[in-house]
Q: What sequence folds into this?
């Protein structure tokens, strides 16, 4: 994660907890969140403040993004096992491309379940 992305995560957190953000904060959070994607980190902020009143820390973001990634993979596997949502009924199910299941013949997108996050999964 870049310091600019970390600043976006911190800005969203600040909307909940009124923290102040400086350049050093963004650099430190970027280092702590190395390898974490921006979209997942932003979703982690929302998930945290839906369930907790404690101030968000990088470890919380990492824990939530692990759950988000695991749930996304589980949902993609589940959809792939059901097969593509098309008329071909291609044996072997669909092909996962960028987290989306598509028919290998017509490339029609299959329906994918959205990941859900609960506090129980992050503890």
A:
């Amino acid at each position: 994660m870049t310091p600019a992305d970390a600043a976006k995560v911190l800005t969203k957190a600040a909307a909940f907890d009124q923290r102040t953000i400086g350049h050093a904060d963004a650099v430190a959070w970027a280092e702590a969140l190395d390898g974490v994607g921006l979209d997942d980190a932003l979703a982690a902020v929302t998930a945290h403040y839906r369930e907790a009143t404690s101030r968000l820390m990088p470890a919380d973001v990492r824990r939530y993004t692990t759950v988000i990634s695991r749930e996304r993979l589980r949902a993609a596997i589940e959809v792939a096992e059901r097969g593509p949502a098309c008329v071909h009924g291609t044996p072997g199910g669909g092909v996962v491309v960028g987290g989306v299941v598509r028919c290998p013949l017509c490339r029609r997108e299959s329906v994918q379940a959205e990941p859900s996050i609960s506090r129980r999964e992050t503890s």
The helical segments are 3-17, 23-32, 38-51, 58-82, 119-122. The CA atoms of residues 70 and 115 lie 9 Å apart.
